[in-house]
């Protein structure tokens, strides 16, 4: 009986040791440092996410200006400008001729026109060879967008400097604003053997910035002659600044009616 006691003590001691090791192993994962590092990742991610509003604030001075739709023989052309601090930073055609060979001509011409518009900062750009109608429509819509951009731009000296000497500076500012504001004048409708012709011009600072035919002969061969002649007459009116422009060959009646209506519009605008 006395020999069995030491063996029993060994067995009990071994069992107690095994139990202790098992308990230590069970408690060890709770103190694993990897869990602490995972918990610390969340604040870093939150801080990074706060950067996005700051990036958006940098673009606060950028605005988009879309020109009027210019109709061409092959479809409409419309230009949109991205403007920042009074400078054109991007130009794109939101409308352009589609279908058939127009797809190829549009793909060829529009990227070049966009690039030239940004480089020139004006509508005085070269037409793309092989895409004359698209180029003409693009420049008309581009000029319209530029006019809108200038009309909506703040007048020089309207900032903090205008507060000093408010009496004299305010009167001078209002006078210049009135002179710079573009206005639209529509000439009388002129009847021709093929239909009426009526011209509308946009005048800014006594200069024609835009001309368009709000009425022109339609139907049959008149559609083709109108599409051929009116864009050229519009461009010639803006370039000349008066009604002394050449008639378009093959569209004599339309050209004559156009010039008469244009002169009527000029008379209403004060010459």
Plain-language structure description:
Strands 1, 2, 3 and 4 form a four-stranded antiparallel beta sheet that branches. The longest helix is centred in the first third of the chain and has 24 residues, at 4-27. The radius of gyration is 37 Å and the shape is elongated. With 271 residues, it is α+β, with helices and mostly antiparallel strands. α4 packs parallel to α5 (132-152) and α7 crosses α8. Residues 29-58 and 159-178 have low confidence and may be disordered. It has helices spanning 4-27, 33-49, 51-57, 101-120, 132-152, 166-180, 221-240, 252-268, and strands at 62-66, 70-72, 75-84, 87-95, 183-186, 190-192, 195-204, 207-215. The protein starts with a helix and ends with a helix. The chain is built from eight helices and eight strands, in the order αααββββαααββββαα. The chain is 52% helix and 20% strand.
How are the SSEs placed, and which strands pair?
Layout lengths: L3 H24 L5 H17 L1 H7 L4 E5 L3 E3 L2 E10 L2 E9 L5 H20 L11 H21 L13 H15 L2 E4 L3 E3 L2 E10 L2 E9 L5 H20 L11 H17 L3
Helix pairs in contact: 4-5, 7-8
Features of the shown structure:
271 residues, alpha+beta, 52% helix, single chain, four-stranded antiparallel sheet, 8 strands
Order of helices and strands: HHHEEEEHHHEEEEHH
Given helix and strand content, the structural type is alpha+beta
Binned strand content:
15-25%
Please identify the oligomeric state.
single chain
* Distance, first to last CA: 136 Å
Rg from alpha-carbon coordinates:
37 Å
Characterize the biggest β-sheet: 4 strands, antiparallel
Query: On the 0-100 scale, what is the average pLDDT?
Result: 78
């Amino acid at each position: 009986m006395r020999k069995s006691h030491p063996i029993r003590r060994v067995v009990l001691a071994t069992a107690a040791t095994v139990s202790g090791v098992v308990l230590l192993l069970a408690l060890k994962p709770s103190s694993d440092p990897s869990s602490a590092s995972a918990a610390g990742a969340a604040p870093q991610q939150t801080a990074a996410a706060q950067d996005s509003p700051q990036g958006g604030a940098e673009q606060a001075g950028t605005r988009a200006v879309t020109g009027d739709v210019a109709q061409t023989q092959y479809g409409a052309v419309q230009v949109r400008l991205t403007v920042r601090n009074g400078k054109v930073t991007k130009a794109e055609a939101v409308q352009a001729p589609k279908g058939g060979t127009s797809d190829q001509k549009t793909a060829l011409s529009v990227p070049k026109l966009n690039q030239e518009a940004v480089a020139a900062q004006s509508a005085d750009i070269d037409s793309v060879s092989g895409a004359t109608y698209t180029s003409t429509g693009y420049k008309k819509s581009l000029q319209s967008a530029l006019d809108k951009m200038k009309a909506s731009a703040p007048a020089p000296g309207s900032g903090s400097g205008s507060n000093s000497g408010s009496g004299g500076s305010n009167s001078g500012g209002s006078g210049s604003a009135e002179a710079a504001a573009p206005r639209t004048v529509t000439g009388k409708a002129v009847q021709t053997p093929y239909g009426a012709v009526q011209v509308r011009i946009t005048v800014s600072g006594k200069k024609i910035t835009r001309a368009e035919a709000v009425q022109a002969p339609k139907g049959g061969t008149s559609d083709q002659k109108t599409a051929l002649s009116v864009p050229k007459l519009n461009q010639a009116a803006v370039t000349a600044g008066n009604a002394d422009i050449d008639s378009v060959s093959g569209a004599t009646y339309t050209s004559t009616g156009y010039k008469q209506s244009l002169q009527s519009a000029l008379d209403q605008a004060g010459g």
